[in-house]
Design brief:
- The chain is an all-alpha fold.
- It has a single domain, classed as Farnesyl Diphosphate Synthase, CATH 1.10.600.
- The chain has a two-stranded antiparallel sheet.
- The chain is globular and about 60 Å long.
Amino acid sequence: MFVTPCQQVKVTHKSLFSLMLSIDEIKKPIATEIDVFEEKFKTSMQSSVPLLDRITHYIVKRKGKQIRPMFVFFSASICGGINESTHRGAALVELLHTATLVHDDVVDNSYQRRGFFSINALWKNKIAVLVGDYLLSKGLLLSIDNGDFKLLKIVSEAVKQMSEGELLQIEKVRRMDISEEVYYEVIRQKTASLIASCCACGAASANTDDATVEKMRLFGEKIGIAFQIKDDMFDFGTDDVGKPLGIDIKEKKVTLPLIYALNNCADSDRKRMINLVKNHNDDPEKIARIISFVQQNGGLAYAETQMKKYTDEAFAILDTFPTSDSHTSLEQLVRFTTERNK
């Protein structure tokens, strides 16, 4: 296949790290722990109700890359060591996160999740809501039965913030008045709080002091913010990112690339673009115009700079911990999540 100079630049601009290291290679220091965790996680979801067992089996079969449990285990490893409490912390995070995803699909009327049918698509909304409630209760009981109150507090705080962030975004979308400050508050609550809870849970499970737990929480929060900025950039990128363009525009979500472009253009252009987002967000031609506007007004370049700033701040925190295989892999995991192309 003939490759143009422009295409070559695009290929070489992608991090060689992302092309060379797979998620399986990154998790090697904790591969055995992850295998054990997966079995324990399956057990934690079991029910005596056949319908519920079928649904939870379906959920387990279509699990993702296990990024969140990896953050829990790596954080525990660099903060003192992995133990049974770490496994429960990872299961707690996954149970509560899965519950929120099931409920989100109902709220968003979404019928797909990671390329598979969502629970509400296969079993309807009523059952999906009940399944989400069941997973939430299983997570709560897992912690209470084992006295993991510190872990439960960390993750419960994250779930609270995720709900607040979602509602804040809905409120601001209606009024189309999201500033850069509000944007960061939304993604800190909606996305970063969960990654922060993973890292804090890992540290807390290793019986480390409160200051170290807070340090790891902040590390995870900065990674979560960088992750979401990267995700928001995909909406205004090129066709090879593995994700359809303009999804956020269709949902009237005002993200960092668009916020920057709107704040750095003529008033007439700003009014015209806001009108397109508000009233023509389902027109492919208009969406293409918005994407071009963001690209030409430096929105993507600015978002890239901000993403790197948060990533660098996270690495500065991580570098205060002693070097080890887990330390190296945690750094690689961060790069994997922020340098991905889909």
